[in-house]
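Typical record was shown:
=====
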Amino acid sequence: MIDGCGRTIDHLRLSLTDYCNLACRYCVPDDAAPCGQMIDEEFAFQVVRWLSTRHGIRYLRLTGGEPLMYAPLHRLTRRLAELGTLREITLTTNGQALGHQAESLAAAGLLRVNVSLDTLRADRFSRVTRGGDLDHTLCGIKAAVRAGLAPVKINVVAQRSFNDNEIANIAEWGLSHGCVVRFLEVMPIGPLAHVADKHLVPASEILERLSERFTLRAIPGSLGQPATDYAVSGNGMRGVVGIIAATTRPFCDRCRRLRITSRGRIVACIHDGTGFDLAEFWDGSELCVHDADEVLSRALRGKPKEGPRRQSLAMVSLGG
């Protein structure tokens, strides 16, 4: 797929549900209505088959909400892996339920996982997630490493006056467990766009804090990619950390992603409120490919050159 700006689109982020067992403060607004939408399994399978066989999607990330709360996750993962059209099936999770699912997900065909971990302090973790259990996430990460979902990537949203004094500590913990640790700038998304104004820790500062403890060397192959990765050494550690500077160094010109929400809408740009409904071409058993092709073409033509910052949906509804 080539969009209206000439970018190749081969990555799909598929939200399986907008339900989450946590309510992180930079993801879920205080006044958010209760969620609970679950995408139909057969619809999800046929959409991925259509996009991968006809339109060149090769990299699939299963998201939410919290995808581990999606009941047919393991069966759907196996079916998607058996298609043979995808190079990679990955999943983003908060890790709360990962400890007892990691091994069976690996057996089903999942290649690796990204796990959100914003602090190593139990009180802070509970506060930012509105009630989450830090130990569950830490155990989930360790289980994913044991299951071979490697490299396990830890996603850390760096936030001023919350975890900016833990950046090096989280990196050290992740590296000691064989993980790649990636630090993300807060993004101005939808009704929580103001969080970036108040809590943004820019990539330059993240690097400064990491450099106080480690020696960092940029990995050439990652330069110019959404995540710039660095080989880390020092303090008895070796491994890789990454920086995703979506706010201070936008990478719209290199965007290769398409999103489908759990309500069956195509979202071509995470910052754009324009959506295109695929669900209306689903009769409960079959996807009308002809009509789906037309709406996909419209979505690709309308994918903006740069994110216009007019998204009204919160991240929990978009698929992280």
Summary: The chain has a mean pLDDT of 94. The chain is about 30% helix and 20% strand. Residues 191 and 283 are 33 Å apart (CA to CA). The domain at 11-318 is CATH 3.20.20.70 (TIM Barrel).
